[in-house]
Write a structure and sequence with these properties.
Layout: E1 5-10, E2 16-23, E3 28-31, E4 36-50, E5 53-58, E6 62-65, E7 71-75, E8 81-88, H1 90-96, E9 108-109, E10 114-115, H2 118-132, H3 138-156, E11 159-160, H4 169-183, H5 191-198, H6 202-213, H7 217-234, H8 239-245, H9 251-262, H10 266-271, E12 281-282
Helix pairs in contact: 2-3, 4-5, 4-6, 4-7, 5-6, 7-8, 7-9, 8-9
Organism: Nonomuraea cypriaca
Protein name: AraC family transcriptional regulator
Keywords: Activator, DNA-binding, Transcription, Transcription regulation
């Protein structure tokens, strides 16, 4: 029997979530987040691929993912790993980095997915513990959040996250296909639909999309539907209804993919709609 477990917390009023988990057998499907995601490995080691390379985060190391950074993840060995993860929306990062005049300095880019910095790891653990502790005041959480973002950017970020002034043809194709997926997230689109919308061939649109976003269009579409289901569940929609509304065959189908992408079941996520309901949960044997 697996010893996997997870604990989740979600802010009710802003894009801020936290996870504390131990995984021995769970394997993350390749996915990305719409947030910045910062994790610190406490015990063991997690191996994952990101941006075309293989990485390992051992105890004391930090994982730093930009929004829409595709990655997977699994235990490096049979002993598993324990880690803390904080997901922070880009708007919170931008606000935390505003200068004294209130001007925004732009979003940072973390070029290295694994950072070995003990001071940053300690700061991230302190923020994570405060988020999961229902006795921590809102003011203290905000202080730790601002200080942690500033420290991560100062010590681990490289350059502002900016777009090319003149995107290549391939990038333009990928963005157009992505927009169609967002606009028609519940439609049963085909690769021909994507090709027609971009004025190119099926192969060209697939190649451009995968190169830009690190996922096939079908995986990206499923991810959009999972995010939509997650929002519905957080808003109180019954899980079975959320599954139907977002294009999944039934609740068990949604649960399988939800767990593979997010590391916890929809039911566990529903319990985390407020800080006081973040409870430790034993994962199913896989």
């Amino acid at each position: 029997m697996t010893q996997d477990w997870s604990r989740y917390w979600r802010a009710s009023d802003r894009p801020l979530e936290a996870m504390h988990a131990h995984f021995e057998r769970h394997v993350y499907h390749r996915h990305s987040h719409e947030t910045y995601s910062f994790g610190v490995t406490e015990t063991g080691a997690q191996s994952f691929s990101c941006r075309g390379s293989a990485h390992t985060s051992a105890a004391g190391m930090i994982m730093a993912f930009n929004p829409d950074d595709p990655h997977d993840g699994h235990a490096t060995d049979e002993l598993g790993f324990t880690y803390r993860m904080v997901h922070i929306g880009p708007s919170l990062v931008e606000n935390a980095l505003s200068d004294s005049t209130g001007r925004h300095t732009g979003l940072p880019l973390f070029a290295t997915p694994v950072v070995n910095d003990q001071a940053l790891a300690a700061r991230l653990r302190a923020l994570h513990a405060a988020l999961l502790d229902s006795g921590t005041t809102a003011l203290r959480r905000d202080e730790l959040l601002t200080a942690t973002i500033a420290g991560l950017v100062r010590r681990a970020a490289t350059t502002p996250l900016t777009e090319q002034r003149r995107p290549s043809r391939s990038t333009t194709i990928a963005r157009q296909a992505r927009q169609l997926l967002h606009d028609r997230v519940m439609d049963d689109l085909t690769i021909d639909d994507l090709a027609r919308s971009t004025g190119t061939s099926r192969y060209a649109v697939y190649r451009a999309f995968h190169a830009k976003y690190g996922l096939p269009p079908s995986d990206y579409q499923r991810q959009l539907r999972l995010r939509a289901a997650r929002t519905l569940i957080a808003d109180g929609t019954p899980i079975a209804e959320a599954a139907t509304a977002t294009g999944f065959a039934d609740q068990s189908h949604l649960t399988r993919w939800f767990t593979r992408y997010f590391g916890l079941t929809p039911g566990t996520y529903r319990q985390a709609t407020t800080p006081d309901t973040a409870l430790p949960t034993r994962a199913r044997a896989r």
